[in-house]
Amino acid sequence: MPAISVSEDVKRELLRFASELQTKFERRVDFDEAIKFLLRGRKGKNPRLLMEACTPGNAEEVLKELYEERRKDEERYSRYFGA
Known about the structure:
4 helices, 2 domains, mainly alpha, elongated
């Protein structure tokens, strides 16, 4: 497996993030898995949708969709991490 170099600050943050994932999923998470999780999380983000969500008058609809998408995320994470 190839090695990569990161600063001590980045290493500490990655360790903190991996420990948060371990707490959330109640199993061991290594740096490789934490990095994969972060990389997968950045896919599919669309700034235009954020701007649409911030328009006045549709707060209830946006909140409902936010909760629904969060529920789907939790289901995907549970399937992926077996939690």
